[in-house]
Amino acid sequence: MRFLLFTAVVFGIFYFFYNKLRRFLAQIFQPLTEEDNTAQPGGAPGRINKGEMKQCPACGVYFPAGTGEKSGGTEYCSAECARKGPAE
Ligand SMILES: [Zn+2]
Fold it and tell me: Counting Cβ atoms within 10 Å, is residue 62 exposed (0-12), middle (13-18) or buried (19+)?
């Protein structure tokens, strides 16, 4: 019975240190930018989504989504295009 208790204590200590070490290594190899990768596309309004491109309905130019000018629910490349509206 004494041996069983000793084994349990050793495993407890080992597990404690294993958890600490694992967190320590995770902090080194996985910086706090992990939340950015799991961000939903088109989530929060006004947020710039990396890599997503939009085409301006007025002049046809491509620009990163979130950086353009919004008018009537449509995003244009610039305020000038937003004023002109979509091309005929
Ligand atoms: Zn435009």
Answer: exposed
Q: Rounded to an integer, what distance in angstroms lies between the CA atom of residue 47 and that of residue 64?
A: 11
Ligand 1 center–CA 69 separation, angstroms: 9
Return the amino acid letter for 40: Q
Q: 29-33, 41-45, 56-60, 69-73 — which is least confidently predicted?
A: 41-45
Distance 71 CA to ligand 1 centre (A): 12
| Residue 59 CA, ligand 1 centroid: distance in Å | 4
Q: Is the pTM of this model over 0.90?
A: no
Return the SS3 of 69.
Answer: strand
